[in-house]
Design brief:
154 residues, mainly alpha
Length: 154
């Protein structure tokens, strides 16, 4: 079962980015509760979500899983420079920090909401729903709520 958690974390990271790997996302992917994810991680890996991500990184490094390592590079995590260069050449868009989900999803969702329904409809809640992230991540991506409209226009 712990290997299923690790594989789910790797798949979510490749599809959506490392910041989208949450207990909830892993639980939904594996078909268990978030409590079970935590319990299994602590029992078999010695920690919570961080232990799942550490194990996923170790597996990706051993198997040279370039798509996962590209997502790791997006976060600024330091990898061996030769390996990092190979990953960047193999997956340039996945390793580009500017395209790092979920921020790319957030900005895209903001633009689509403003375009489709008008600028006032692009609320923090609506953006979070459309991007598939939590509201606090929308706030983090844009800064304060006062700064959000200006940053959306930028």
């Amino acid at each position: 079962m712990p290997n299923r958690l690790i594989q789910a974390a790797r798949a979510i990271a490749i599809e959506k980015g490392l910041l989208c790997v949450t207990r909830e996302a892993i639980a939904a992917r594996v078909g268990v509760s978030t409590t079970q994810v935590s319990r299994l991680a602590f029992d078999h890996l010695g920690g919570g979500l961080e232990s799942i991500l550490s194990a996923a990184l170790a597996q990706a490094l051993n198997s040279k899983d370039y798509p996962y390592l590209a997502r790791v590079l997006q976060t600024g995590y330091p990898l061996d420079e030769d390996l990092a260069e190979k990953v960047r050449r193999s997956f340039p868009t996945l390793s580009d920090p500017l395209d790092c989900p979920p921020y790319g999803h957030i900005w895209r969702a903001s633009y689509e909401l403003a375009r489709d329904k008008g600028f006032p409809s692009a609320t923090r809640e609506a953006i979070a729903d459309r991007a598939g992230v939590c509201k606090s991540l929308v706030s983090y991506a844009y800064g304060s709520l006062d700064a959000m409209p200006g940053r959306m226009l930028a």
